[in-house]
TrEMBL record:
UniProt KW Repressor keyword: no
UniProt entry keywords in alphabetical sequence: Molybdenum cofactor biosynthesis
Annotated SMART domains: MoCF_biosynth
Entry's family note: Belongs to the MoaB/Mog family.
MoaB/Mog domain boundaries: 14-158
KW Zinc (keyword) present: no
InterPro entries in the cross-refs: MoaB (IPR012245), MoaB/Mog-like_dom_sf (IPR036425), MoaB/Mog_dom (IPR001453), MoaB_proteobac (IPR013484)
Protein role: May be involved in the biosynthesis of molybdopterin.
Organism: Rosenbergiella australiborealis
Taxonomic superkingdom: Bacteria
Name assigned to this protein: Molybdenum cofactor biosynthesis protein B
Amino acid sequence: MGEQHEKKPSLNIAIITVSNHRTQDNDTSGDYLQQAVELAGHRVSERSICPDNRYALRAIVSQAIASEHLQVVLVNGGTGFHEQNSTPEALIPLFDKEINGFGELFRMLSFEQIQQSTLQSRAIAGLANKTVIFAFPGSTSACQLAWEQIIDTQLDASTKPCNFVSQLKKVKE
């Protein structure tokens, strides 16, 4: 007799690249995230590039949070200390609950790659209206670290002892 496997829930995910310079043609980080999300069996429902402007980003993410079908928002870029970087300032007011451990874990893991420069990573995450939002640096290597070592397993309902799937909006497939 063959084993029966429970079907892994496929989530609806938005990918937002925060940049004043990237375009659809050169958004390698967005391309990586789209491929990784799809390879994990999820759907990229929306993908956009937003200028590094806290109000523009807040508007886009607010629409995603209010959407009945989006369950996850991945924001890459705008998390550094440059005066234009405003991703944390844009997102924190939107959170119902912050996921403090995400930034802590991201910086711990990224220390292996970039040593003390990880201090300048303001990676954050939170829940808002049953939507999980992860924000991390925009380099492709930072996106890989965030997805492969943290986010992918937290969007898998089989991850024990806990994951975020049960916290998200229920969407009919």
